[in-house]
């Protein structure tokens, strides 16, 4: 913060019960991922936060996709 840099992290996540295109999925708070489930994409609240931040950004440092884009169900983020 003292350098004027904002680090934005997801607040919600699309979780799945297995790493599979047809896995059961649901959206949960980032701090409420159920045991045995895994995060495969950012959730809709996070998408909104990132969209707003990117609209006003002058510089963006990015590394990799937000979700498992190979699976359409998890490629929205």
Automatic annotation (TrEMBL):
| Alphabetical list of InterPro entries matching this protein | Phosphoglycerate_kinase (IPR001576), Phosphoglycerate_kinase_N (IPR015824), Phosphoglycerate_kinase_sf (IPR036043)
Pathway terms, separated by semicolons: Carbohydrate biosynthesis; Calvin cycle
What class does this enzyme belong to in the EC scheme? transferase
- Recorded GO CC terms: cytosol
Keyword Nucleotide-binding included in the entry's annotation: yes
Record keywords: ATP-binding, Kinase, Magnesium, Nucleotide-binding, Transferase
**Which chemical reaction does it catalyze?**
(2R)-3-phosphoglycerate + ATP = (2R)-3-phospho-glyceroyl phosphate + ADP
The record's GO molecular-function terms, alphabetically, read: ADP binding; ATP binding; phosphoglycerate kinase activity
Cofactor (UniProt):
Mg(2+)
User: Could you say which protein family the record assigns here?
Assistant: Belongs to the phosphoglycerate kinase family.
Q: What is this protein called?
A: phosphoglycerate kinase
Give the species this sequence originates from.
Answer: Noccaea caerulescens
Organism ancestry: Eukaryota, Viridiplantae, Streptophyta, Embryophyta, Tracheophyta
């Amino acid at each position: 913060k003292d350098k004027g840099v904002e680090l934005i992290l997801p607040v919600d996540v699309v979780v799945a019960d297995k790493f599979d295109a047809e896995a059961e999925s649901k959206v949960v708070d980032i701090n409420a991922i159920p045991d045995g489930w895994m995060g495969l994409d950012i959730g809709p609240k996070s998408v909104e936060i990132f969209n707003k931040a990117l609209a006003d950004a002058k510089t963006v440092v990015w590394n990799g996709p937000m979700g498992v884009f190979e699976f359409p169900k998890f490629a929205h983020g």
